[in-house]
User: Which sequence fits this backbone?
C-alpha cells in the first residue's frame, strides 16, 4: 500500500531559527496535507497542496508529485510552534489519507 | 464554532466492554472518516463513509464496526473492547475527492481499555 516516510522524527530549534521537515512517498500521490498536533491534542490543518508551494506566515510548504516528496519549512520559530507535525498523502481517488509517523518539534528559548 | 465534534472526549472501559464513539460534522461534507493514533505513529484509517448509509473498510478495521446514520453523524463501535484498542481516536470529514479531498478533524477521543 501507500507509504509515507517522514523525517526527522524529532527536531529541536531555538527561538528565531528555522528548519525543514520532509515527507517522501513511495508512490505518486495527488496531494498532501500538513497538520500540527498541539498540546491539547487537536489536529490543526496547516496546508493542503495538489502542486507547487503555499505560504502562511512563518510556514511554507512545497509538493512535488513527480519527485514524490513534500516539505514544510518553518522560519523564525516561536515557542508556540512546538508540537507534533504530520504530513499525509492524499489519495484523491478514494479520499483516503496515509500519514507519516510525525516530527516532534521542540522550540526552546 | 467547531465543525467536527466528538463525544465522549475521554472514555475508560474494561476488556470485553461495549463502546460507541460519536462524531458529528456541520460542514455539510459527504465524506467522514475514523482514525486511530498511537504514540509515535501517524493516524491509521479504520473506516470511512461516502454518505448516509454507506460504509467503506479502512486499513485497520479489525475489531471495529461503524455506522453512518445521517450526513452529519458517524459512529464507531467497539463491541468487545480489548486493551490493544487503547488509543486516541479522531474523526474527520471532507467534501469529496480530487481537489475537494482536504480533511478536517475533530478534537479526538481518548479511549482506555483496562
Assistant:
Amino acid at each position: 500500500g501507500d507509504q509515507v516516510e517522514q523525517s526527522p522524527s524529532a527536531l529541536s530549534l531555538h527561538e528565531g531559527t528555522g528548519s525543514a521537515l520532509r515527507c517522501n512517498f513511495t508512490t505518486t500521490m495527488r496531494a498532501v496535507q500538513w497538520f500540527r498536533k498541539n498540546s491539547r491534542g487537536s489536529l490543526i490543518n496547516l496546508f493542503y497542496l495538489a502542486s507547487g508551494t503555499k505560504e502562511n506566515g512563518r510556514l511554507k510548504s512545497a509538493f512535488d508529485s513527480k519527485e514524490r516528496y513534500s516539505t514544510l519549512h518553518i522560519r523564525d520559530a516561536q515557542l508556540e510552534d512546538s508540537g507534533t507535525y504530520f504530513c499525509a498523502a492524499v489519495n484523491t481517488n478514494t479520499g483516503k489519507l496515509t500519514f507519516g509517523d510525525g516530527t516532534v518539534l521542540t522550540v526552546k528559548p | 464554532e467547531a465543525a467536527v465534534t466528538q463525544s465522549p472526549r475521554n472514555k475508560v472501559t474494561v476488556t470485553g466492554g461495549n463502546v460507541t464513539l460519536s462524531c458529528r460534522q456541520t460542514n455539510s461534507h459527504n465524506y467522514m472518516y475514523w482514525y486511530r493514533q498511537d504514540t509515535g505513529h501517524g493516524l491509521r484509517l479504520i473506516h470511512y463513509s461516502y454518505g448516509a448509509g454507506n460504509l467503506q473498510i479502512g486499513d485497520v478495521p479489525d475489531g471495529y464496526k461503524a455506522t453512518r446514520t445521517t450526513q452529519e453523524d458517524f459512529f464507531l463501535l467497539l463491541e468487545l473492547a480489548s486493551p490493544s484498542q487503547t488509543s486516541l481516536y479522531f474523526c474527520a470529514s471532507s467534501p469529496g475527492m480530487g481537489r475537494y479531498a482536504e480533511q478536517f478533524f475533530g478534537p479526538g477521543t481518548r479511549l482506555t481499555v483496562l
In short: Chain B has a mean pLDDT of 94. DSSP finds no helices and eleven strands in chain B. Residues 4-113 of chain B form a domain with the Immunoglobulin-like fold (CATH 2.60.40.10).
